[in-house]
Fold this sequence. Notes:
Layout lengths: L9 H10 L4 H24 L2 H5 L1 H17 L9 H16 L3 H15 L1
Amino acid sequence: xxxxxxxxxxxxxxxxxxxxxxxxxxxxxxxxxxxxxxxxxxxxxxxxxxxxxxxxxxxxxxxxxxxxxxxxxxxxxxxxxxxxxxxxxxxxxxxxxxxxxxxxxxxxxxxxxxxx
Length: 116
């Protein structure tokens, strides 16, 4: 029987997601990958180049998985919660852009700690 917590909502998952990204270099790789995803999507639409859109998963997952396997040394949440993980990438990207990430990381650590 697995002792891993099962997440049934995005907002209950997001604090866990943040704690799995505790290393700033891993978060930087995610930020770069998510930014490139957005740029590839916009460029693909503008230039009607579907190869750019086809490259999105490789770009996004490539940066993220390098961060997890080589920096964080943990298993990407994508394998268990693909949609929550994808959404969390964009929320974390927004929190980095808007300067909210430090506060959100502290809240996530406190929440996860109180649950254990």
